[in-house]
Design brief:
The chain is built from six helices and eleven strands. The chain has 221 residues and is an alpha/beta fold. It folds into three domains: 3-69, Histidine-containing Protein, Chain: A, CATH 3.30.1340; 80-145, 2-Layer Sandwich (Histidine-containing Protein, Chain: A), CATH 3.30.1340.30; 153-218, Histidine-containing Protein, Chain: A, CATH 3.30.1340.
C-alpha cells in the first residue's frame, strides 16, 4: 500500500468513526499529503468536523474541503429571515462577543457577517456561533478588526513569539513572524497540525492583531 493509499484509508476510517459526520456521501482523494474531500453532509458543522478529522492523520499536510451541505428531505429548514433572527439571538446570548457593531444577512442559507469587532479572535468566534444556527449552509466572514487602542507592530510580534516559545509543540526557530500595521505574516514550517494550531492561536489571541497571512508549511512526516 502506497503512502497516499494508507493516508486515505486512515482518513476514511476517521470520518466513519466520527459520530458528528455522516460520511456516507463523502469521497476522499490524497496526493502528496494533500487530502481533498468531496460529496455532501447534512449540516455545516459536519463539514468543519470532516476537515478537522483529516488533519488528525499523520502525513496530511493540507486539506481541501469541497463538501457541500445538503439537508435531508425530512429536515425542517428555516427561512432566511428566521436564520438571521436565530444568529442574532445566538450573538446576544454569547457574553464574550460584543455584537452591537455586527450586521447579518442571509441568502439561500448562506450567512454573511459584516461590521467590526475589537479583537481578532472575536472574528472567528462570530463565525463559529453563526455556523451553529439551524439552516446555515455556509458562512462568509467579512468582519474587520478595529482595536480599541493603538499597538506597536514590534510589541505585537514579540508577544506572539513569546507565546509560541512557551508552547512545547512549536520549534520557534523554524517559524518566522513579522507584523505590518497589525497584520501578522507567518513563514516557515511546523512539524504537525498541533504545532500549526498552536502558532495560529498565538496570533489569534494576541492583542492588536487585525489579520493573519498564513504561509506556514506542515512538514511531511
Amino acid at each position: 500500500m502506497s503512502e497516499s493509499e494508507e493516508i486515505k484509508k486512515k482518513v476514511v476510517d476517521q470520518l466513519y468513526w466520527d459520530n458528528r459526520v455522516d460520511s456516507t456521501d463523502i469521497s476522499v482523494e490524497v496526493h502528496n499529503g494533500i487530502v481533498k474531500l468531496h460529496g455532501k453532509v447534512p449540516n455545516y458543522n459536519a463539514k468543519g468536523a470532516a476537515s478537522a478529522d483529516a488533519r488528525t492523520i499523520k502525513g496530511v499536510t493540507a486539506v481541501e474541503n469541497d463538501i457541500k451541505v445538503e439537508f435531508a428531505p425530512s429536515t425542517f429548514v428555516p427561512s432566511d429571515s428566521e436564520i438571521k433572527s436565530n444568529i442574532e439571538s445566538l450573538f446576544r446570548l454569547n457574553y464574550t462577543l460584543d455584537a452591537k457593531d455586527l450586521n447579518i444577512s442571509v441568502t439561500a442559507g448562506v450567512a454573511t457577517l459584516e461590521g467590526s469587532v475589537d479583537a481578532f479572535w472575536k472574528r472567528k468566534r462570530a463565525e463559529e456561533i453563526a455556523s451553529d444556527a439551524n439552516g446555515v449552509i455556509d458562512v462568509i466572514n467579512k468582519i474587520t478588526i478595529v482595536p480599541t487602542k493603538n499597538f506597536l507592530d514590534k510589541d505585537i510580534a514579540e508577544d506572539i513569539i513569546d507565546a509560541i516559545t512557551r508552547n512545547l509543540s512549536v520549534n520557534v526557530s523554524n517559524v518566522d513572524v513579522a507584523v505590518e500595521n497589525g497584520k501578522v505574516i507567518f513563514k516557515g514550517s511546523v512539524k504537525d497540525w498541533n504545532a500549526y494550531n498552536a502558532a495560529m492561536d498565538a496570533a489569534r489571541y494576541t492583542a492588536g492583531v487585525i489579520d493573519i497571512d498564513d504561509n506556514l508549511v506542515i512538514e511531511s512526516m
